[in-house]
Amino acid sequence: MPNSSLSLFLGVTATALVLTPTTAVAQTFDFNRVENLPGGPIESDSVLSFFGDIANNEGYLAFRNEDPTAPDAGHIDLRPGTDNARYYIVGPGRSPDPATRGTRSVTLEGLTGLPNFSNYLKENDIPLNSIGFDFLPKSDRDLTKTWNLGEDKQGQDWFGSADSPIEESIYQANPDDVENFLTFGTTKIIDFGYTPFYFVSANDNP
Q1: pLDDT by residue (tens digit) across 104-145?
Q2: Could you give the CA distance from residue 107 to residue 104 in angstroms, rounded to a whole number?
Q3: Per-residue model confidence (pLDDT) at position 96
Q4: Cα→Cα distances 52→5, 78, 152, Å
Q5: FRET label pair with 165: which of 21, 32, 52, 183, CA 20 to 30 Å apart?
Q6: Pairing state of beta strands 147-148 and 158-159?
Q7: What is the reported pLDDT for 95?
Q8: Of the candidates 39, 38, 13, which has an alpha carbon nearest to the alpha carbon of residue 26?
Q9: Residue 52, strand partner residues
């Protein structure tokens, strides 16, 4: 089950989140290259900037059914030199491997706007890196209830071609099965409800 680092920008008015693996680091990635997904860094005066580091058991886990005939085996990635797409994604809090299990997907690195939140952190000597974000199935749900590619149909659930280094994917789940939230240390403090994840993968970005 591969583990990857993660960059994430969360605007408080956003209706979706964009995940970009570190092969396409969000701080330097040109989102004008994204042609099919509605998500991206939004114009907002209130933005939380996060980064998840594999070395700290952060980031995300991506996996698929190893049976190539199974509906959740993941589609064949059309880009040269790539493997089958991972059908599922989940935060490291639900990793089946204790060595890669973590308490958050990303750690807060930057804060723009949100003066009340910012002042609260300063007045209580709470460092930014004590705030995290995670996404996973609810504790009583199976791991396969996490965000996934649904019917895994090209042009519906994912977009890509052999001529483009970019693949765009939409990971969704049953809203009753999953949660995504801010944490303080290991304590959940703000539940965001449900959102799909728009995932951008670029295998030509340094």
Answers
A1: 999 999 888 888 989 999 999 999 999 999 999 999 999 999
A2: 7
A3: 83
A4: 5, 27, 26
A5: 52
A6: unpaired
A7: 85
A8: 39
A9: 6
Q: Which two tokens stand for residue 180?
A: 């995504």
Q: Considering Cα of 168, then 8, then 13, then 44, what sign does the dihedral take?
A: negative
CA distances from 22 to 73, 117, 188 (A): 24, 28, 26
Q: Dig out the tokens for 17 from the structure.
A: 């989140």
Which residues of the chain register pLDDT less than 50? 1-3, 12-16, 23-26, 205-206
Q: Give the separation between CA 88 and CA 114, rounded to whole angstroms.
A: 33
Residue 58: phi and psi, rounded to 5, are -110, -170
CA–CA dist 191, 40 (Å, integer):
21
Structural tokens at position 92: 């490291």
Largest interatomic CA distance in the chain = 56
Write down the residue that tokens 């290991």 correspond to. Answer: 186
Instruction: Tell the residue number behind the tokens 């880009």, with chain if given.
Output: 79
